[in-house]
From TrEMBL, chain A:
<keyword id="KW-0067">ATP-binding</keyword>
<feature type="binding site">
    <location>
        <begin position="165"/>
        <end position="168"/>
    </location>
    <ligand>
        <name>GTP</name>
    </ligand>
</feature>
<feature type="binding site">
    <location>
        <begin position="31"/>
        <end position="38"/>
    </location>
    <ligand>
        <name>GTP</name>
    </ligand>
</feature>
<dbReference type="InterPro" id="IPR050100">
    <property type="entry name" value="TRAFAC_GTPase_members"/>
</dbReference>
<keyword id="KW-0808">Transferase</keyword>
<comment type="function">
    <text>With CysD forms the ATP sulfurylase (ATPS) that catalyzes the adenylation of sulfate producing adenosine 5'-phosphosulfate (APS) and diphosphate, the first enzymatic step in sulfur assimilation pathway. APS synthesis involves the formation of a high-energy phosphoric-sulfuric acid anhydride bond driven by GTP hydrolysis by CysN coupled to ATP hydrolysis by CysD.</text>
</comment>
<dbReference type="InterPro" id="IPR009001">
    <property type="entry name" value="Transl_elong_EF1A/Init_IF2_C"/>
</dbReference>
<dbReference type="GO" id="GO:0003924">
    <property type="term" value="F:GTPase activity"/>
</dbReference>
<comment type="pathway">
    <text>Sulfur metabolism; hydrogen sulfide biosynthesis; sulfite from sulfate: step 2/3.</text>
</comment>
Automatic annotation (TrEMBL), chain B:
<dbReference type="GO" id="GO:0070814">
    <property type="term" value="P:hydrogen sulfide biosynthetic process"/>
</dbReference>
<dbReference type="GO" id="GO:0005524">
    <property type="term" value="F:ATP binding"/>
</dbReference>
<dbReference type="InterPro" id="IPR050128">
    <property type="entry name" value="Sulfate_adenylyltrnsfr_sub2"/>
</dbReference>
<dbReference type="Pfam" id="PF15943">
    <property type="entry name" value="YdaS_toxin"/>
</dbReference>
<comment type="function">
    <text>With CysN forms the ATP sulfurylase (ATPS) that catalyzes the adenylation of sulfate producing adenosine 5'-phosphosulfate (APS) and diphosphate, the first enzymatic step in sulfur assimilation pathway. APS synthesis involves the formation of a high-energy phosphoric-sulfuric acid anhydride bond driven by GTP hydrolysis by CysN coupled to ATP hydrolysis by CysD.</text>
</comment>
<comment type="subunit">
    <text>Heterodimer composed of CysD, the smaller subunit, and CysN.</text>
</comment>
<keyword id="KW-0547">Nucleotide-binding</keyword>
<dbReference type="Pfam" id="PF01507">
    <property type="entry name" value="PAPS_reduct"/>
</dbReference>
<keyword id="KW-0548">Nucleotidyltransferase</keyword>
Length: 636, 376
């Protein structure tokens, strides 16, 4: 691996010293399908002699077998390592490769051009300093070129190499090069890329990769590798204010308590005053530690810090300096890249991971999405896979953060689906919509406990879910009558009625269904605040929305009642004739027919209506409430 | 003492941004940065505020050092982190995430150089405490004897807990590397590993694999999910953004975590050298008895070795680039008996380290297939 270096054979110790001091550059290749990204990386590895003899022999054999380049080597096969990639001749997922020259060490991520695999491109880009954006000289700037440029800019890459490739197929024409460069610069002026260097190239033939090519005498710049060896990138900021998200509290024995994490910005040394955020408690650093004490540590190092005082600090908190305090909020404006087949719906709740902190979050508003071709802002109700949108986000609890522009590690987050556990989005924080410190809840003397006490009851929500025609309303009505007889104060929220009034502006798209349930959940909560028992009878087909409603209420005050009726039985009953209409296609998005119903996995009460009469079902619910102590007086 | 140019670079602020912040042209800022012109006295405090560079560095002729709250001189003067320091920090960060979020983590310890580095990093990550997970060694019973001795000593020295797992059924059936080829690896390694993980109920297992080893590894995430039955699906890996790892798994899923993903073979050796990490002596050249077997030079580690007809063990100065089951591990002839010599040999060699492993030779896609079936 850099066998050219003489020191290697003459003075190995000196060589190692030199190698150790090399800086590290992480870059990606991106751009549209088939523009030659993988070929370029293969070529770079080959030309910088990073390929071992046995690997080369295997490559030659593979190239012949695949036959994509006739008798010649197909350099893309060096990086396209999965069987499916080699069969289809495309890249599906990121490949990480490593090489070094005398000046630098490189980690390169070769990303896929296909739109379908955009999230894999973002995966590679999120840790890169430089992006090489390839363009096929015959085809010019394409949608995918723009999308990748936009994403590179979004994740904070400022240095771009515009590799105008396949110049061998356009006679190394300077006109073609200039025209494409002009097109690109026109587009890129709308992005926050700063240093764009264009190079005419042939990845296949090796022009302007490691050496200047005789085929492009008009090109005055450096070949790609020299540029990569010298390009200056933004380094981690050690003069900035100190930030360290606490990953792990290290407490091996009574005498030692340390807070472990990777320093995200600034530096720290014994004696520094630090603040634990979001709580804001202060203390002094007593030790900075890894496997021994350190005089100081800087951004980029993983350390353990112990403090003078026994302050409360746990995983997810952030240790910060006192000069430039970190912000704390529970509402943000953010940009997100949606990465999942199931679209993002405002109102639905997700898990957000920022640093070492995971909290429940939901998108309260999708302000617009971005057309990556024109950079126009487009109004939308949802974000589909690979779309980018500007949103407002609301968190269940305040977190410490910086704007992403200021720090990638304290300002970048992911969203996780709470049921499939998939990573569904990547996001960057712009700013807080309000500072959490400034919110003061109106403290009420007459509070919810007082109101329920006055009625001598406990307030809670009975949430009936099930298919249309399952028997929700029938059973709920009987239950409410029984409660009334027991002297309880209650109210009923029924799907059909609420849709006629409060929610008459909503339809039946997935997005509207989410909003429908959100409003009903909030109304139910207000009613329990008033001390009432609330019976909610809604199809509420999605698990995540029912979960969201559940979280609006204190633990134990939300009871999910699953009216479990098989689709065939409900359809057979069809009290309102809706199933027949849905089958005829007259009703769109009908639950069970053309829109999914996600049955509860763990409801508090489950009733099989094929085996029970409505009266029996209602009696079972009353029994269950009694057992839980919910029908006793407020004080008991 | 770091020069002004370095301080400006480290501030993370671009010349354009500085120019904007203090209301001067980019050209003027570039002159300050390059030391061609002094920063006007009335702008020094603004520049300090925006870049964090203390005033006595910006204009040493105007300000004395020792500002309260200023960043320590030693910190400004210290060199940039090296790539090894960065790799170390990344690996430790990964291990702590697992410790914090996994229910029952375990570290796969295979006794080789990568395991040695991984274990060393784990000790650092949780010092002064011990790593909050045990080690697991899947023993095929055909490992070099020196490996087992080294393993037991290491575990004792560090005071750690190690579980050894042997596929007893395979032993009873007499499965061995001579007669059973590919099936041997399957039964004694892959199947054994799966059984061990299921038996102990581990949900997250650290492995020492590196992306530079082989082309399907180059494609793998640091947190690599396995479906129930331990299958890897390379076509639908979770996105992995920044250093934010989503460790939430569905019922029956497990995770393999590779904290050394971004290390190269050279990084491993250089780190072992720098940190004086103990490794199995088989990595160093010494005279050892060998025969030619299966196109490789194989060490006769015990009487179970099937010596091909017409051969007698010969004493040769050899060493190993990688360690595994002795009948399947090829030695290289070498005189290198110090770390620098080993590194030198490695850098000058023209073949990859995996060439010494019989397991990778079967077919181009063999590693991907093995991993889909649950091999580490
Ligand atoms: N003539 C010519 N062909 C090239 C050049 N670079 C790449 N190719 C060919 O273009 C085709 C696609 O190359 P890849 O390297 O697989 O393209 P990619 O951008 O990695 O494709 P995806 O990763 O699937 O998006 C192959 O047939 C290459 O041989 C070039 O400079 N000149
Ligand atoms: Mg490709």
């Amino acid at each position: 691996m850099d066998a050219q270096n003489d020191l290697l054979s003459t003075d190995i110790e000196a060589y190692l010293k030199q190698h150790e001091q090399k800086s590290l550059l992480r870059f990606i290749t991106c751009g549209s399908v088939d523009d030659g990204k993988s070929t370029l990386i293969g070529r770079l590895l080959y030309d910088s002699r990073m390929i071992f003899e046995d690997q080369l022999a295997a490559l030659e054999a593979d190239s012949k077998k695949m036959g994509t380049q006739g008798q010649n080597i197909d350099f893309a096969l060096l990086v396209d390592g999965l069987a499916a990639e080699r069969e289809q001749g495309i890249t599906i997922d990121v490949a990480y490769r490593f090489f070094a020259t005398e000046k630098r060490k490189f980690i390169v991520a070769d990303t896929p051009g296909h739109e379908q695999y955009t999230r894999n491109m973002v995966t590679g880009a999120s840790t890169a300093d430089v992006a090489i954006i390839l363009i096929d000289a015959r085809r010019g700037v394409l949608t995918q070129t723009r999308r990748h440029s936009y994403l590179a800019s979004l994740v904070g890459i400022r240095n771009v190499v515009l590799a105008i490739n396949k110049m061998d197929l356009v006679n190394y024409s300077q006109d073609v090069f200039n025209r494409i460069l002009g097109d690109y610069m026109n587009f890129a002026s709308g992005l926050s890329l700063e240093n764009i260097v264009a190079i005419p190239m042939s990845a296949l033939a090796g022009d302007n990769i490691t050496e200047k090519s005789g085929n492009t005498p008009w090109y005055m710049g450096q070949p790609l590798l020299s540029h990569l060896e010298t390009v200056e990138t933004k380094t981690v900021d050690r003069t900035a204010a100190f930030r360290m998200p606490v990953q792990w509290v290290n407490r091996p024995n009574q005498d030692f308590r340390g807070f472990s994490g990777l320093i995200a910005a600034g530096s720290v040394k014994p004696g520094d005053v630090v603040r634990v955020m979001p709580s804001g408690r202060e203390s002094q650093v007593s030790r900075v530690f890894l496997d021994g004490d350190m005089p100081f540590a800087v951004a980029g190092q993983s350390v353990t810090i112990s403090l003078e005082d026994e302050v409360d600090c746990s995983r997810g908190d952030v240790l910060t300096g006192v000069d430039d305090p970190i912000e704390v909020s529970d509402q943000f404006e953010v940009t997100i890249v949606w990465m999942n087949e199931t679209a993002m719906l405002p109102g639905r709740s997700y898990l957000l991971k920022l640093g070492a902190k995971t909290v429940v979050a939901s998108v309260t508003a999708l302000k617009h999405k971005v057309n990556v071709n024109t950079l126009e802002q487009v109004a939308s109700k949802q974000l589909a896979m690979n779309e980018i949108g500007l949103c407002n986000l609301s968190l269940a609890q305040p977190v410490a953060f910086d704007a992403y522009d200021k720090n990638r590690q304290t300002g970048g987050f992911i969203l996780i689906d709470r049921f499939t556990n998939e990573t569904v989005a990547a996001g960057t924080i712009h700013f807080a919509l309000r500072r959490a410190q400034n919110i003061h809840w109106q403290a009420m003397e007459v509070d919810r406990a007082a109101r329920a006490g006055q009625k001598d009851q406990k307030a809670f929500v009975l949430w009936f879910t099930g298919l249309s025609g399952a028997g929700k309303s029938t059973i709920a009505n009987i239950v409410e009558r029984r409660l009334f007889e027991l002297g309880k104060h209650s109210t009923m929220l029924d799907g059909d009625n609420v849709r006629h009034r409060l929610n008459r502006d909503l339809g039946f798209t997935d997005g509207d269904r989410v909003e429908n349930i959100r409003r009903v959940g909030e109304v139910a909560r207000l009613m329990t605040d008033a001390g009432l028992i609330v019976l909610v009878s809604f199809i509420s087909p999605f698990r995540s929305e029912r979960q969201m409603a559940r979280e609006l209420l204190p633990e134990g005050e939300f009871l999910e009642v699953f009216i479990d009726t098989p689709l065939a039985v409900a359809e057979e009953r069809d009290p309102k004739g809706l199933y027949k209409k849905a089958r005829r296609g007259e009703i769109k998005n009908f639950t069970g027919i053309s829109s999914p119903y996600e049955a509860p996995e763990d409801p508090e009460i489950r009733l099989d209506t094929t085996a029970l009469t409505p009266e029996q079902a209602a009696a079972q619910i009353i029994d269950a409430l009694e057992q839980r102590g919910l029908l006793r007086g407020a004080g008991l | 003492m770091a020069d002004l140019k370095t301080l400006f670079r480290r501030s993370g602020k671009r010349q354009r941004e500085i120019a904007e912040a203090v209301g001067r042209s980019e050209g003027a800022v570039s002159q300050w940065v390059n030391g061609d012109r002094e920063i006007p006295a009335d702008l020094v405090l603004k520049v300090e505020e925006f870049t964090g560079i203390p005033r006595h560095h910006l204009r040493p002729d105007l300000w004395e050092k020792t500002m309260p709250n200023a960043v320590d001189e030693a910190i400004l003067a210290a060199p940039d982190l090296t790539h090894l320091q960065r790799l170390e920090a990344e690996s430790i960060h990964i291990m702590r995430e697992v410790a914090a979020e996994a229910e029952r983590p375990v570290m796969l310890y295979s006794i080789g150089k990568d395991s040695a580095v991984m274990l060393h990093l784990a000790m650092k990550a949780f010092a002064p405490g011990k790593p909050p997970f045990p080690l697991l060694h899947v023993n095929t019973t055909w490992k070099f004897h020196e490996m087992i001795g080294f393993r037991d000593q290491r575990v004792k020295d560090l005071g750690l807990e190690l579980h050894e797992w042997i596929n007893q059924d395979g032993i009873a059936r007499g499965i061995n590397p001579f007669d059973h080829g590919g099936a041997y690896t399957d039964i004694m390694k892959t199947e054994a590993l799966k059984a061990a993980l299921d038996h102990f109920g581990y949900d997250v297992a650290f492995g020492g694999a590196r992306r530079d080893e082989e082309k399907s590894r180059a494609k793998e995430r640091i947190f690599s999910f396995r479906s129930p039955g331990h299958r890897w699906d390379p076509k639908s890996q979770r996105p992995e953004l920044w250093n934010l790892y989503n460790t939430r798994k569905n019922k029956g899923e497990t995770i393999r975590v590779f904290p050394l993903s971004n290390w190269t073979e050279l990084d491993i050796w250089q780190y072992i050298y720098k940190e004086s990490i103990p490794i199995v002596p088989l990595y160093y050249a010494a005279k050892r008895p060998v025969v030619e077997y299966n196109g490789m030079t194989v060490m006769v580690d015990d009487e179970r070795m099937r010596i091909p007809d017409g051969q007698k063990p010969e004493m040769k100065s050899i060493r190993f680039r990688t360690l595994g089951c002795y009948p399947l591990t090829g030695a290289v002839e070498s005189e290198a008996d110090t770390l620098p010599e080993i590194i030198q040999e490695m850098l000058l060699t023209t073949t990859s380290e995996r060439q010494g492993r019989a397991i990778d030779k079967d077919s181009a896609a063999s590693m991907e297939k093995k991993k889909q079936e649950g091999y580490f």
